# Entry
Amino acid sequence: MSPLFISDAELDRLRRSAAEPDLAGSRYELRGQLGRGGMATVYRAWDAVLDREVALKVLDLPEADPALAARLLREARVLAQLEHPGIVPVHDAGELPDGRAYCAMKRVEGSRLDDAARELTRTERLRLFLRICDAVAFAHSRGILHRDLKPENVMVGSFGEVLVLDWGLARIVADLPAPVPGNARDELEERNERELTRHGAVLGTPAYMPPEQSSGVVSAVDQRSDVFALGGILQFLLTDAPPSAGAEVRIDGSKALAAACSKARALSPDERYPSARELAGDIERFLDGRPLTAYRESLFERGARLFERYQTATLLVLAYLFVRTLLLLFARQ
Amino acid sequence: MNKAWMGLVLGGILGIFDGLTAWFTPAVRPFIVGIVIGSTFKGLIAGVLTGWFARRVNSLAWGLAFGLGIGLLLAYLVAAMPSATGEHYYWQIMLPGAIVGLIVGYATQRFGQQSADRSSRQPA
# Structure
């Protein structure tokens, strides 16, 4: 009997096919792959019941650690609490016939913030940033911390809509008003923290992670930890480079924006903006040509800012004075 | 302050200032009181009309155009009246008048509140 040879390409195809989730018997049809994370893959799928395309996040292995399945389900539960235009909505969650946990979410067409930002001006980037802050502030108002904010977790849609994704590390904070009933929230949160940190692993992305989160002290993490990450996103949007810990923030042409970044990324939570809304407020003030709370400007800088803000009015007054002077000079001749 | 009031106040102030500049022209200095009163009155009319326009049309370009038009028109009406010496000062009155109109047109578009009845109206 001759040996059976399989080409590398064929082997690869078979591997991919075996890794694909078995959607037979479910309401979803597989249409392709959108992305891949550490524990799950996001597929493009068709929801045959509602006739629409969805993003289906499926755990990679059917026999995966039950904690991972619980984590995915928890992410879906967190998202279900957050109905906001800036937060990707969840449609469905459960277990596929092959035993893998899944979560069906809105299929977002667009690109990640780090890619989308390349074609935008500074003002457009700051306006996008305000929408991210708005979504995060909403989550905080519902008692939920994201804990993994970074440009890769923000999608910018084809019509400029901004969606904050990947709430897998989110934490429900007990002392903030939350829509989940008290007992259910406590139980959910307790289970979550146990699952997320049971191996002593520090969760998050180092460049955007505040010291209190990287030190692994879960109780020290509050909304100011997300403010730190937002500061990192702001710095990325203004410099096109990921933030580096401890380095002085330098932003071309604006000491005020650099000060806002520094304040958001202060090592001590007490020195940061107390909330995402406060940070957004300073960026709004910058866009409106008003002084920032994070930066004390010099007299010259104040003059330059006021001139820029009231440029037309200043030019009109100068034109008036110029014409008056000219007429007087002619009259004297 | 709503836009109409703002136009009125700004037009009045600029009108006074505009009239006072006549002091630098020795030929008309004896008539400065009449000039200041006339200029203030002109500024008030231009201001209130431009403010009224800004309450209805929210456009910087149209606000500037309206201010310019009103400023020129009123300045022309004043300049068309011969002075006590019998001379007409078209350039001296119309050029600054036009710029004052532009300033009021700009200010009423950029600043001041829409009237309460318009801003509080909600769609059914």
About this structure: Helices of chain B lie at 3-20, 32-56, 60-80, 90-110, 116-119. Chain B touches chain A through 15 residues (CB under 8 Å). Residues 55 and 114 of chain B are 6 Å apart (CA to CA). Confidence is low (pLDDT under 50) at residues 118-124 of chain B.
